[in-house]
Amino acid sequence: MHPDRLVESVPNFSEGRRSGVVDEIVGAFAGAHPDVLVLDRSSDPDHNRSVLTLAGSGEALLEAAVAGAAACARLIDLRGQRGAHPRMGALDVLPFVPLGRVTVAECVVLAEVAGRRLAEEVGVPVYLYGAAARRGDRVGLPEVRGGGFEELLRTAAVDPARAPDFGGPAPHPTAGATAVGVRPFLIAFNVDLATGDLALARRIAAAVRERGGGLPAVRALGFALPGRGLVQVSMNLLDFRVTPPAVAFAAVAGLAERAGVRVAGAELVGLAPEAAFEGVDPVSLGLLDFSPERLVEERVRKARAGRGLAGGGW
To answer: Which tens digit of pLDDT belongs to each residue from 212-251?
Structure first.
């Protein structure tokens, strides 16, 4: 496993409350191949969702994808699953991210092989998105996910526009479908507001998201977090070089202040590149528990050291 040939994969699966189930699913991903490096894991009970960050060779990540998807399909039944975060599958999203000298084209091949294997070996239909999309209307993840699992149950088998790229056409009856794609490094960055006013969080999300004329390369939603008594503006920063966390935080905080609401804190879900916080104190962005452990380069260095890997770069 050459350090310059690493690929990142960030499985998002629809369970964030049953710790034993989360552990078993993480174990399936991690134990599928000896070259899989587990860089990070996080679970959120309000979102009822977990995010796992893996790195490894393409071969290793393909085996992890199949094993992890099978565990998700076996352990998660979307018919009774509820959470703040939208979802279409037990294994909801499986992006591949090129690191080092790996190219986007190489990751597209990985996504296509993974999609075919998930459909054939696990029985879960797959929609390709991002750079792997086969259709122009499936580049964006929100368009692929649509109305989620329930909408897929109603439409996928009868509407050609909702037919998957692999498998199906109907979704798996309990595990739904998975979006498999290729994207640049995405930063999941959430800002919590010290209020229970969900309408305010949704207004701010609408104002800052690119689709609403807000910040470029930003997707945003407003969520209630009943377990914390707060609301949240949950953002995906699709290209931190265009809109870094500091700019996104300032926009949300400014709109909240105008409404007389203070920011209660912020949350980084998963990891971020070092360059995303260059010249910025993360504490000033509400990330009070931030440490170098939240940086992907640091995690890769430590994971490689733990496996006895040497060399520069990634």
So the answer is: 899 999 999 999 999 899 999 999 999 999 999 999 999 9
Question: Helix axis angle, 58-75 relative to 104-117, nearest 10°?
Answer: 40
The yes-or-no answer on residue 85 being catalytic is: yes
pTM: 0.81
Phi, psi of 247 (to 5 degrees): -70, -40
Q: How far is CA 118 from CA 70, 106, 281, in A?
A: 8, 18, 41
Mapped onto helix, strand or coil, the DSSP state of residue 166 is strand
The strand pairing partners of 166, in sequence order, are: 126
Exactly one of 33, 47, 85, 172 is catalytic; which is it?
85
Q: For residue 106, what are the CA distances in angstroms to 138, 194, 198? A: 19, 44, 42
The span from the CA of 93 to the CA of 104, in Å, is 18
Angle between helices 58-75 and 19-30 in degrees, nearest 10:
150
Q: pLDDT for 8-40, tens place per residue?
A: 999 999 999 999 999 999 999 999 999 999 999
Torsion of CA 289, 293, 294, 299, to 10 degrees: -170
Give strand ranges (E) for 146-277.
178-182, 187-193, 218-225, 230-237, 263-269
